[in-house]
Amino acid sequence: MPNAPKTPARQMRIGEEWLAFDDAAKSQGTERAAVVRSFIAWYLRRPGAKLPERPPVGPWSTPSLTDQ
User: Fold this and answer.
1) From 30's CA, which of 23, 36, 49, 67 has a CA 20 to 30 Å away?
2) 49 and 38 in contact (C-beta within 8 Å)?
């Protein structure tokens, strides 16, 4: 089957931060899904899992409208 992912898609409600999160992840040469998977592994205390590194301050660092 072409383009069959190894894991099923999951849905979450994120809000406006999703696009800024994408920009921040791309600034580190990665993608949102990889950062989320790393965080989940760390949160669940999987052996060898590390907390994902935060990106440097950038345009994504300013508060969103929902934070004010």
Assistant:
1) 67
2) yes
- Cα-based distances in Å from 57 to 13, 18, 53, 67: 24, 17, 12, 17
DSSP labels, 1-67 = -TT--SS--------THHHHHHHHHHHTT--HHHHHHHHHHHHTT-TT--PPPPPPS-GGGSPPGGG
CB atoms within 10 A of CB 27: 13
What single letter denotes the amino acid at residue 52?
P
Q: Does the global pTM surpass 0.85?
A: no
